[in-house]
Amino acid sequence: MTTPTDRLVGLLDLERIDLNIFRGRSPDESLQRVFGGQVAGQALVAAGRTTEGDRPVHSLHAYFLRPGRPGVPIVYQVERVRDGRSFTTRRVVAVQQGRTIFNLTASFHEPEPGFEHQVAMPDVPAPEELPRLADEIRDRLGELPSALRHMERRLAFDIRYVDRLRWTPQELADAEPRSAVWMRALGPLGDDPLVHTCALTYASDMTLLDAVRIPVEPLWGPRGFDMASLDHAMWFHRPFQADEWFLYQQESPIATGARGLARGQIFDREGRLLVSVMQEGLFRKVG
C-alpha cells in the first residue's frame, strides 16, 4: 500500500523531459491551489538535478506568482546561471498551462572549513511528550472535520505542537505571535541528501505562517482570513535527515498592510541549528 511518505518521494521524483526541463506531478486534491511547499520542493529538485551533486544547496529565494491548479502537471525550466569554483547558481521558473506560477533562485556551495557559532535551541519538551496534531484536534473537537481527515490521510509528516492549540477568544487574548513544532517524515526518505533537503523545503511551508495567525484566530478552526504565501527564503547551514525529528521554531515580527512576516529556525535534537527560514504571507479577511 502506498504511504504518504511514498507519495511525497514520488512528488519529488521529477520527469526529465530535456537537459534543463523537468515535469512534476500535481495531485488532484480538493484544494483551491497547489500547496506552495510542493512547488518549492519540486523546483529545488529540478535545480539540484542540473548540478554535479557534490555541492549541497546553501540558500534559496523564491516568489509565489500565481496559484497553481491541482491535478495539472507543472513544468520546471532551469537556467544554469553560474558554475564557479566554489558556488553553483541555478534559476528555476515553474510553468503551468503556459503561465509562470513560481520562480526560484538556488545557490549551491562546495563544503569548506570555517569558524562556527550559533544561537541556542529553545528548551522545549521532547516530541515523545507531545500529542500528534490529529490527536490534539480530535480531543478538542471530538472528531476530525472532513477536510482535516483528508489532510491526515495525505500528510507525510508527523507534526507535534510544543504549545497547546488555542481555540477560544480568551485563549487567543494573550497569545504572542510565535509557535514551535516538532516534525519528521512519517517514513524513511532514502539516502539521497537532495531528497531530504527538498522534503524539508516542502515541510517548511506547512506551519511557518502559523506565527502570524496565532494572536488572531484558532489555527485549526474556521478561517476568518484567506491566506497565501508570497515569497520564501531558506538558508541551509548543516546536513540533516528530514525523517528524523527536527524542531521548527517560528515567530512573526510584524503584520501590517494585509501582509505578515514570519521567520523560522530549524534545530535537530542535539540542538544544532540546521536551517533558517523567512516567509511573507498575504492575509485578507474573508467576506
From TrEMBL:
SUPFAM superfamilies: Thioesterase/thiol ester dehydrase-isomerase. PANTHER family: ACYL-COA THIOESTERASE (PTHR11066), ACYL-COENZYME A THIOESTERASE 8 (PTHR11066:SF34). Keywords: Hydrolase. It comes from the Bacteria. The keyword Hydrolase applies. This is Acyl-CoA thioesterase II. Residues 165-282 form the Acyl-CoA thioesterase 2 C-terminal domain. Residues 33-109 form the Acyl-CoA thioesterase-like N-terminal HotDog domain. Belongs to the C/M/P thioester hydrolase family. Pfam families: 4HBT_3 (PF13622), Acyl_CoA_thio (PF02551).
